[in-house]
Design a protein that fits this description.
Distance between the termini of chain A: 34 Å
Oligomer: homodimer
Subcellular location (chains A, B): Cytoplasm
Strand order of the largest sheet of chain A: 1-3-2
Pfam families (chains A, B): Staph_reg_Sar_Rot
Number of domains of chain A: 2
Number of helices of chain A: 7
Keywords (chains A, B): Cytoplasm, DNA-binding, Transcription, Transcription regulation
Largest sheet of chain A: 3 strands, antiparallel
Protein name (chains A, B): Organic hydroperoxide resistance transcriptional regulator
CATH architecture of the largest domain in chain A: Orthogonal Bundle
Shape of chain A: globular
InterPro entries (chains A, B): HTH_MarR-typ, MarR/SlyA-like, Transc_reg_Sar_Rot_HTH, WH-like_DNA-bd_sf, WH_DNA-bd_sf
CATH class of the largest domain in chain A: Mainly Alpha
Number of strands of chain A: 3
Order of helices and strands of chain A: HHEHHEEHHH
DNA sequence: CAAAAATAGATTGCACACAACTTAATTTTG
DNA sequence: CAAAATTAAGTTGTGTGCAATCTATTTTTG
């Protein structure tokens, strides 16, 4: 007779706690780069993009964030000198976000973060693979928006 | 040669996205109970507690939230008639949070939520068990606070 | 082609989430 | 026992995150 409403039985609560703990583990490393956790995700997206940058729309699709979150976040990143905003010439509605020199340079300082964090998780390679598989499966069955 | 900074390779990003998707899946169900997702977690904690209720501190330990989050959140729940606050008599620093009649009654309306959501995940029982195991392992290796 | 619909981004309002700080009460300690 | 340290909640300030709305620009359609 399972108690379905017990907090310990909620998958969502495990994800909720773990997500917060992850962000807290990143925080000290990111602080030295003057980045918040969501800003770090934006940087990851931009570091792997072309030099023209990404539109706010495509950044939003990649990170699953809407303009209500991204607009002020990108404004802060611009203030901190990490990104530039350019109106697209083909479509005046579109704003292209691209890295500044300083934003590009920051990549070198971030390069070790993923492995450092993976070390702290204590997971084996095979557990990591298995967890990735299960999370992807769940991501694919949970519709976005 | 793995690209460690690629967004697709980040475990944290999978958890980040999935956590948000979960909250969005709960949202419509919780809206009919007039609860937000964090408020739902508070209700789960209170539904399984004794009738004396829980202190803000123990609620915070259970949910991994500090008073900066809980104080205003509990105030809103009190405004909505779900919980009461009582100063403890043994220790005047402690505030006990307990359910109102209406808060207790809400449990009946929430009883089907976990199974409804589990259905939407599309996970098998064995996948659920495996995922729970891996998440717990990760939770136990990631220190809190 | 002009009106209607759709799209991109920004803005507003509300609810977390957390660091840092404050206040009041209790414990510890010299 | 009194001063110092600790503890529990609350407050303040900043940064998300999202729904709803607004504005400007395109695209579609009659």
């Amino acid at each position: 007779m399972a108690n379905h409403l017990a907090l310990e039985n909620q998958l969502c609560f495990r994800l909720y706690r773990l997500n917060k703990r992850m962000a807290k583990m990143y925080a000290p490393l990111l602080k030295s780069l003057n980045l918040t956790y969501p800003q770090y995700l934006v940087m990851l997206a931009l570091w792997q993009s072309t030099s023209e940058g990404l539109s706010v729309k495509s950044l939003g699709e990649t990170l699953e964030l809407d303009s209500g979150t991204l607009s002020p976040l990108l404004k802060r990143m611009q203030t901190n000198g990490l990104v530039q905003r350019t109106r697209s010439e083909e479509d005046e509605r579109t704003v292209l976000i691209s890295l500044t020199e300083s934003g590009i340079a920051l990549k070198a300082q971030a390069i070790d973060i993923p492995l450092t964090l993976f070390g702290k998780t204590g997971l084996s390679e095979s557990e990591f693979t298995q967890l990735t598989y299960l999370l992807d499966k769940l991501i694919s069955t949970t519709a976005n928006t």
